[in-house]
Amino acid sequence: MGLEARDTAPTGVRRPRYQWWHVAALGVAANLVSAAAFRPGQDAGWYAELELPPWAPPPWAFGPAWAINNVAELWGNLKLLNLPPDTPNRQTLLYLQGASWLLFSTYSWAAFRTRSPILSLSWTGSYWLLTIASATLSRTMDRSITLSFAPLLAWLTVATALSAYIAANNPDPFFGIPAQHGVRPSAR
Q1: Which pLDDT belongs to residue 184?
Q2: Residue 116 needs a FRET pair 20 to 30 A away by CA distance; which of 4, 73, 143, 166 works?
Q3: Helix ranges, 37-175 (H)
Q4: Looking at residue 101, what is its pLDDT?
Q5: In sequence order, what are the beta bridge partners of 172?
């Protein structure tokens, strides 16, 4: 009765193994790792110095966008975790999501600590490709999981284009690439 009683609701319906707090813990951990590498004054200043395209989102939009992205992705991850273990492609999608959260949590180091537009593009573009793969693969499982990737996919499409523009139009001190012609030099 011990283990079965905990896994079964009073009506006899099996409760999901994973609850909201499991994915909330993942989200908090990933954001804490990311925040540990971010230095608000210095890093926001570096971003402001970059040559940006006219369509770049304003700096204040990043916080709300990532809050929406994280909540939606975590909701889909909860649904994914609670699928039967023998669901086709479930394990592959879990690996894709693990890699995605690794990229998310280390992005601040890759972009801001190194001041590297190339690493920023590499992380953002890889995260975008993993999200495309995740959305595509999840279509065979549960459409609501696929929909959970929609805000992230939209944001990363813009962010990847933005990162490509920044990498093409700014110096990269990490790789020793100087400013290109017509690009303002960094004030560091």
Answers
A1: 53
A2: 73
A3: 40-49, 62-81, 90-108, 117-138, 143-148, 150-169
A4: 97
A5: 177
